[in-house]
Amino acid sequence: MVIISNDLIREPEGILRTVCTALGMPFQPAMLSWPAGPKPYDGVWAPWWYKGTNSSTGFSMTVREKRTPMPDHLKPLLGECRAIFQMLRIHAVRPSSTDVPRAVPPAGEGSSCSDVEKSGTHVYAQDRRNENIMIGMRDGVADSFELACVSVLDSGYMLGDGVWEGLRLHKGVLVFLKEHLARVSKEALTEMLYNTVDANGMSEASGVHIRLMVTRGLKPTPYQSPYITIGKPTIVIIPEYKEAAPGPKEAGITLFTCHVRRGGADVQDPMWNSHSKLNCIAACIQAKKAGVDESLMLDPHGFVATCNSVNFFCVRDGEVWAPTTKYQLHGITRANILKLCKAHGIPHQERDFPLTQVYGADESFVTGTFAGLIPVKEVDGRCIGADGKRGPITMKLQMLSVGSWAVGRWPVGRPGPVGKGTDERGPNRSGRDGHKLINKPEVHCSISSVLGQHLKLIRQRPHHLPTVIYLSERAQVALLL
Questions:
Q1: pLDDT tens-digit profile of 242-257?
Q2: Which of 375, 380, 316, 308 is CA-nearest to residue 351?
Q3: Contact 145, 189 (CB under 8 A)
Q4: How far is Cα 122 from Cα 249, in angstroms, rounded to an integer?
Q5: What whole-number distance in Å separates Cα of residue 266 and Cα of residue 275?
Q6: How many angstroms separate the CA atoms of 368 and 297, rounded?
Q7: What pTM, to 2 d.p., does this model score?
Q8: Are the C-beta atoms of residues 206 and 171 closer than 8 Å to each other?
């Protein structure tokens, strides 16, 4: 586990309680004090501890002299260690009083107009396997793909200058990978995606959602021009065991028409699944303030365009209506639903239609890579269909889409056979060569490289590891004990 010394001094009881819980031992108040003076069984940190932090019998802050500037000859060493220190700091234990998991609605609970937190397009069940997920990243400057951290000077962080994709992993294969990568640069992305999947032991897994992010790369200084970017684009891949909770798929969600409009391609091309999502975030905030699950967004002409994070459909007189793609992302799940309609003889069309047509619709639903297909029960306080219940066409499309996933027979993008030597993953993927991402240790001389080999074993919850990494913020150097 990783412990930051200053945290231990500021909140000793909270940190010690967390450590005791991780080690499976009871906390005792006596741990917070001890007899004065050094003892023969003290560890290697004892001299520093007694002289620099506490010279008597307990945890307490001491007044320190003004820190002197770091000598020039040590600055290169600091530069090597800084990124490692920041990575370790992310994984440091927190006091037990603040180390509380994020609140996520339990799986299976349906939506409720009075309790928005239990409904929505991205509600999911917690999965403890995500505590140990490894995140893959390609450093565009070093041109290496490993576990790493993103600089504050990265174009995506500073400017929102990047694109992203959400993908699903089904039985170890990335579904509709060709369609997803058609919207971003394809440079070595397939291999990187599967390397990350393999490193997390997901080679045959299902129910995995992956966020792929590509930014323009590192800047030497805060400035928007892409011409000063250093190196190649930064690539980050976050795989999680995450499936949509079943409740909203049955009970439906509620929508509210927001004042934020979708712009045209001359403002920001809606085909770009970009990091610059401020307009959608503003719509999301307005939906939350209105007490609903998502915002319904109109185009500049007042026609229905999309929701803030999913694509929108409505059903009138047995015909499925989808807004045109002029002012919305060309969703892959959206396109596949339309193909299912065509394959199964369900009338459908893409067209412009006003909000009043939605109010009088027989059914409505939304689609997304993570969400799948979720019915809409209410728009702007108006009940959709028969008392807001899921309609027959919505139910049919849900069953068709789920059945297609189960047997691998989507109208497009069917995964190739796994284990045949060559498949959609590329040559020899069945040989599990993707593990080279994690299991190729090399010998280096620098401190940062040596620590980097250990960092490859650190997950989001470092207390699962027996190794203790104790950090000193004074020197920003980590020691393995």
A1: 888 888 999 999 999 9
A2: 316
A3: no
A4: 11
A5: 18
A6: 16
A7: 0.61
A8: yes
